[in-house]
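User: My collaborator sent over this chain with a note saying "see what the structure looks like." That's all I know about it. Can you take a look?
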Amino acid sequence: MSGYQLGLLVILCFNVIAAYAVYLPLAAGQLNLGIAGFMAMGAYTAAYLTNEMGWSLGAAIPAGGAAAGVLALVVAIPILRIHGIYLALATFALGQVISAVFLNLEVVGAAAGYQVIAYAQPAVVICVTAAVVLFVFVLSRTRFALYLTAIKNDTVVSDLLGLNVRALQVAAFAIGAVIAGIGGGLYGHHFSFVEAQHFSVTLSVYTVLYVLLGGTQTVWGPLVGAAFFTLIPELLRAGGGWRYALFALFIIGFMAWRPQGLVTPALGRALTRMGRTREVRP
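Assistant: Without extra context I'll predict from the sequence alone. Here is the result:
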């Protein structure tokens, strides 16, 4: 594998982690536009622990994820009282506040950024990404995922059926933040540098687009969406300066063709039937 291909694979890994961080709250009907803020929390916490406290990567990166999760638990209680577009705006503002705090925090370099000494090898990034994907897939087979789907479809009915709607929403929000924090910690240690400007609203919006394009109905959607946003622009390099215009047209075309997302349960069943038919044929 060439250096270019390995670099692309690492970027894909970061995009996949960010996509699953958005997917979990979205599975409960919560649009989180502040995911970049939680990534910043994880990145700066992990970087500070390895730089200043001498922690190992294996301890600092999970600690970064835990810090993002604790922050999410603290803010989830007031924020999750609101719904819809107002929740999206609140999370958007939260992400901006977190980035602004690190932008002015001198102990971690403020606007000049923060150099990170420890280095996360590409193999570490790939292994952690695989672990995150496996975790979300296992989680999707549990009652927890069913509860989130029920809440997303009808909050009132879910409450009447006895589900603790608020606790489940807080749990989904916090788990998503933990995944984002782990992704941020990995990012800082792989590129050996953290700057608050990277964790902007653009990153949050792109991450939400990964999930919406891939589809929110199955656990495969974020994976496919992240791969689409990572690989298609590279495949369009032949278009030169027009590649981003072509990519935008691709997105418009796909969303017009499949507004429910590229991957749906119906598509999964159709592919399964197709595979079984081929196995039966002599």
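A starting point for your reply to your collaborator: The mean pLDDT is 88.
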